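Hello everyone,

My group is preparing for a crystallization screen and wants a predicted model to guide construct design. The compound we'll soak is zinc ion. Before spending weeks at the bench, it would help to have a computed complex in hand. I've included the protein sequence and the ligand's SMILES below. Output in structure-token form would be ideal because that's what our pipeline reads.
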Amino acid sequence: MTEMAPRRLLLVHAHPDDESINNGVTMARYAAEGAQVTLVTCTLGERGEVIPAELGHLGGAALGAHRREELAAAMGELGVSDFRLLGGAGRYRDSGMMGLADNDDPDCLWQADLDQAAAHLVAVIREVRPQVLVTYDDNGGYGHPDHIKAHRIAMRAADLAADPAVRSGLGEAWRIAKVYWNRVPRPAAEAAFARLNDALPGLPFAKSAAVDDVPGMVGDDRITAVIDGTPAHAAAKAAAMRAHATQIVVAEPYFALSNELAQPLFTTEYYELVRGTAGRGAEGVETDLFAGVTGDEGAL
Ligand SMILES: [Zn+2]
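Reply:
Good plan to model first. Here are the tokens for the complex, ready for your pipeline.
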């Protein structure tokens, strides 16, 4: 077995494309710095709407298989080699938007037993031994059932992995030192939308999304960490998003999902530390998610 990288980052997401939209710069940075970056995606996004007309025939399992390839291509752009599907490919199905009959599918993520789903992630946590976990807030950023469930699975698995009484596979109990939720500060979102609305006539999008549509938006005071992308990492993020071609149209520094509403492509990514101790710099906001992490303090 090869030696573990000293810094290990775990990200938990709902569908292929969420990781690149939310954390592309962060993933590219830490992969480039030699940290172990592990992505766990909970579903293949089989209920996603397909943007390109020539791929419009894809749906269900065929779309899931296609999105798995898009995810692999995106990870290639970010330099991330360790990406996994929760419980294996196809174990949990996309639940669709809140309130739809899709949510009643017994195989969908929304219907999954929380501890059973978390057990798959406990095994990953004990194998990878991440010091840092990144996931969504308790509303999944914007209320999608799979995003809410991904949040619950991530937080529950972090607890279970740290409990020596919970037996899972071969790994020893491991406590994740720092847990972050994806955030966007309202002032940054408002400034980005002001620039977007000025630029809109020259963009391939007819309309802009609303500021309040931005997932995970909070006041400035809730932001505890800021990862400012270098041009190389920003380019990697845009390329990773472009790799999810069934889901995203990119026109840097903007993009649109299947609703065709333009949004800013954030090349600075923001986080709120919800568990653990910040390793604060002079300006009071972390610029490194591993700040204050010393190594194997999570071993129990
Ligand atoms: Zn999603």
